[in-house]
Backbone:
């Protein structure tokens, strides 16, 4: 690994710092040594001056004692032999010198340096005395002046040598230290940097740092070990993070229960498919598949069973139609979406939708518990189909319109497919308007109750009627119950509407029972899912029976299999409470729901009403005839009366009577009509029988 700038090199920085530090230390130590040498030179000058005076003191004293000028001159001449002495004086201070001689200062090249240190010259003097008659007698003195130039020259030479040698010694030591640092630190670090440069950042543990010879057990060796461990930990954490990110990405794209793509992934794939379809000039179909009555499966068995069933359904469709469906995803709950690409004609989508419905005819086999054992569950579905580019040109609207189509199809007959039509938005706006208008329909007098008579085949008499609610909208005319009842349930107004119907029926019953020919007459009222599970249902009915003083058995309630299965326990409690106040209970549209023997045995029921779809086709369809026969036999075996709905001809009547059916109802006897018309019909019928 190369250092971009040499100034950033650790080795060079260490060299620079070591060099300059050693140089500074060497200079400081050398200066101290020079100072010491200067002090030593002063001592030398002082010592030489005193020693010289001591050596020549005796000859000079004798010369003064004898006043011998010649001898004094020889002493002076001897002293001048010393190069540093420039002046000698021998004599009495108050008299003329006995001998004196002087020479000029030496012209040394270093005087400008040494004179400030030692001064140009130094004077030394010694008193000359002698013993005379036991008394000390002063003769005079000897004085010498020493020129410091010779000492200064020697000092400068010594100082130069000391300074240069000190600096050189420091530089050599710095170089030695640098080599040691390089060998022990910077060179190993440089080798480690080279190893690090060769490491793959994505897989660092595959290229471990090599141990440095001689540094296996010191700090560098430990650092390499810890770094290799760190690399391994980084790679492990990177792998775990990558795995977590992959799982998170996968979870953001799939449904956790079924493993199918979720709504977000569907929208992404659909956008790609739309771009491809646009360039290829063909269509894309979105099929929203909604399972029918799936909520009842969860309530009848367990939510785990429901989850298993959803997963089994998803796997069946995804596996069976892998070649036909580009993408099969789950929107949530019991709704799925199939993406069909490269659609050239709408019938291709219709064919695929029919195949999906056909695939559901094979029941799903589950084992909810050891006590229940193996159970076969049949599912049906309703499919809404939206096409690109006819119905929508972007992914979000295409999915939304497929969902709307599916929901609209569910509001009618189920177990079918339906294409999106251009008028669906108007239909949805109409539904919203109806939902708002429904809240005021009773107050504005738009609701009325009609009745369809029911006949007993054993007596041939009309014994009762079914109360049917009708709504005449001021703008849209007569609204079918299949349209406004679901709206009332969704908006919550069904409780008020249901209570109003019960009130109207009880009032009408009170009127009818006062007539001679209608004694023992019974009226059946349909209960919605919300009413059936309402906690105050039995209290409300009991109050109405008491207020209108209706006899026992004059009121009957009809419930559907689907509404029973919404909440079996709550339904059973309410039905039992109604039974306790002498209200009879009938199962309406039997055969179109769950048709389970378990709830038929456990529920407090009095009557089974065979759905009109089976009765109307019984004369032409052997299957429907078999179903009608089986329902009648089942009802009788459980001690229940059986009523056939949809009797429209004499042949239908004869057929159900031949099978042992107890009661009938249909257009053959009368269409639903107002209380006045029904009352007159019953009077006419009674007169005709007399």
Residues:
């Amino acid at each position: 690994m190369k250092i971009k700038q040499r100034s950033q090199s650790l080795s060079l920085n260490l060299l620079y710092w070591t060099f300059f530090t050693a140089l500074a230390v060497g200079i400081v130590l050398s200066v101290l040594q020079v100072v010491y040498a200067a002090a030593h030179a002063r001592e030398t000058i002082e010592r030489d001056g005193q020693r010289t005076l001591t050596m020549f003191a005796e000859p000079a004293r004798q010369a003064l004692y004898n006043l011998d000028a010649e001898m004094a001159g020889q002493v002076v001449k001897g002293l001048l032999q010393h190069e540093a002495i420039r002046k000698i004086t021998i004599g009495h201070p108050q008299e003329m010198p006995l001998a004196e001689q002087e020479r000029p200062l030496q012209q040394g090249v270093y005087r400008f340096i040494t004179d400030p240190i030692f001064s140009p010259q130094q004077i030394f003097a010694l008193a000359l005395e002698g013993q005379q008659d036991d008394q000390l007698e002063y003769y005079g003195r000897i004085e010498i002046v020493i020129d410091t130039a010779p000492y200064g020259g020697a000092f400068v030479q010594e100082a130069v040598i000391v300074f240069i040698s000190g600096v050189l010694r420091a530089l050599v030591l710095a170089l030695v230290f640098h080599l040691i640092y390089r060998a022990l630190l910077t060179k190993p670090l440089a080798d480690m940097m080279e190893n690090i440069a060769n490491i793959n950042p994505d897989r660092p543990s595959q290229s471990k740092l090599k141990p440095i010879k001689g540094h296996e057990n010191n700090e560098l060796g430990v650092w390499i070990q810890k770094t290799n461990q760190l690399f391994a930990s980084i790679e492990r954490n990177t792998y775990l993070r990558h795995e977590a990110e992959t799982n998170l990405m996968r979870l953001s794209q799939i449904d956790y229960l079924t493993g199918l793509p979720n709504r977000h992934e569907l929208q992404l794939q659909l956008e790609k498919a739309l771009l491809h379809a646009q360039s290829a000039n063909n269509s894309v179909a979105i099929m929203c598949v909604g399972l029918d009555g799936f909520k009842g499966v969860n309530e009848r068995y367990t939510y785990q069973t429901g989850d298993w069933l959803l997963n089994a359904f998803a796997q069946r469709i995804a596996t069976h139609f892998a070649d036909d469906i580009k993408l099969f995803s789950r929107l949530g709950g019991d709704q799925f979406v199939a993406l069909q690409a490269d659609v050239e004609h709408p019938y291709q989508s219709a064919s695929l939708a029919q195949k999906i419905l056909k695939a559901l005819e094979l029941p799903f086999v589950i084992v909810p518990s050891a006590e229940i054992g193996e159970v076969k569950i049949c599912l049906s579905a309703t499919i809404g189909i939206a096409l690109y580019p006819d119905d929508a040109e972007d992914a979000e609207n295409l999915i939304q319109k497929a969902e709307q189509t599916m929901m609209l199809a569910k509001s009618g007959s189920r177990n079918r497919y339906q294409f999106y039509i251009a008028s669906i938005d108007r239909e949805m706006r109409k539904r919203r308007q109806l939902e708002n208008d429904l809240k005021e329909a009773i107050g504005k007098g738009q609701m009325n109750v009609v009745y369809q008579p029911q006949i007993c085949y054993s007596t041939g008499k009309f014994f009762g009627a079914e109360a049917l609610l009708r709504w005449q909208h001021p703008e849209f005319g007569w609204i079918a119950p299949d349209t406004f009842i679901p709206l009332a349930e969704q908006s919550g107004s069904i409780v008020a509407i249901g209570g109003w119907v019960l009130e109207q029926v009880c009032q009408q019953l009170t009127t009818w029972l006062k007539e001679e020919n209608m004694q023992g007459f019974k009226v059946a009222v349909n209960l919605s899912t919300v009413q059936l599970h309402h906690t105050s249902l039995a209290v409300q009915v009991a109050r109405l029976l008491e207020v209108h003083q209706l006899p026992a058995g004059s009121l009957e309630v009809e419930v559907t299999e689907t509404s029973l299965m919404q909440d079996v326990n709550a339904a059973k409690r309410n039905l039992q409470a109604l039974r306790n106040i002498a209200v009879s209970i009938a199962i309406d549209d039997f055969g179109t729901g769950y048709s389970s023997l378990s709830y038929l045995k456990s529920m407090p029921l009095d009557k089974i009403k065979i759905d009109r779809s089976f009765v109307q086709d019984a004369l032409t369809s052997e299957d429907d005839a078999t179903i009608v026969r089986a329902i009648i036999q089942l009802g009788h075996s459980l001690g229940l009366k059986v009523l056939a709905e949809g009797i429209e001809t004499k042949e239908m009547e004869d057929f159900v009577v031949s099978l042992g059916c107890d009661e009938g109802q249909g257009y053959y006897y009368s269409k639903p009509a107002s209380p006045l018309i029904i009352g007159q019909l019953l009077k006419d019928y009674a007169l005709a029988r007399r």
Summary: DSSP finds 22 helices and 20 strands in the chain. Residues 158 and 195 are 53 Å apart (CA to CA). The longest strand covers residues 135-147. The two ends are 120 Å apart (CA to CA).
